[in-house]
Write a structure and sequence with these properties.
This protein has helices at 28-33, 38-47, and strands spanning 2-9, 12-20. By secondary structure, it is an alpha+beta fold.
Length: 90
């Protein structure tokens, strides 16, 4: 899985990192789109039969937003809003 870590601010979008791993939050948006049972996929990998199963995906886009604190360490601000950032066609 290729994960692009991006930072968006008033100056635009900056690429912070690219990762290839099955971690959190990298896997979250991809797993939301996976229709095939993940256990079935893992079992096929272990058994060497992955080529025999069909992996189905939901073709809608999915995004995972991580909103870090301004200063770490520091007090955690709760109940912040993402108004204006997320748009949906649904």
């Amino acid at each position: 899985m290729l994960y692009a870590g991006l930072m968006i601010n008033n100056r635009g979008i900056k690429v912070l990192e690219f990762n290839v791993r099955f971690g959190d939050p990298e896997a979250q948006p991809l797993l939301m789109r996976l229709k095939t049972d993940l256990v079935e996929i893992f079992e096929a990998v272990v058994n060497g039969t992955l080529h025999k199963i069909k992996i189905d995906w939901d073709d809608r886009p999915a995004v995972c937003v991580v909103w870090p604190q301004k200063a770490i360490p520091g007090p955690i601000k709760k109940a912040r809003s993402l108004k204006g950032w997320i748009r949906s066609n649904d």
